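User: What would this chain look like folded?
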Amino acid sequence: MGFQLTNSMLWLIAAIAFGFIEAITLGVATIWFAVGALIAWVISLFDAPLWAQVLTFLVSSSVLLYFTRPIAQKVLKIGHTKTNTETLKGKTGVVIKEIDNIQGIGQVKVSGQIWSAKSFDDEKILEDSIIEILDIQGVKLVVKQKSKGEES
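Assistant: Here's the prediction, encoded as structure tokens.
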């Protein structure tokens, strides 16, 4: 008699393969399929029919992926690279070159750095005005002029 590949062996091979893919990609995506394959492997040990094994794999993998992947991504902070630009929102700065959206000009100085800027409401903002950063679009800060009472 020769070597015979059983369903149990196939599920273990699938679990190892999915685990390997997860290890090299670190995307927290295929780990759920590895767990699903292990659950299907356990079912195969009880001589469940192939359709039940496949259904178990699909359902368990899908449920795990749907309910636990967002939690894992949040905890492990996967798929989100924080940059220093995110820390700029809400900060104030000074206009060093008049902001005019129509002409596409304007620069501000924030925390010692000079940034291109555009006005949130399309109004011109004069040089030396105090601004607040509302958003970042590409490499430009989207700013609004702070009123006199808001200056700090």
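The first helix runs from residue 7 to 25. If you want, I can go into more detail on any region.
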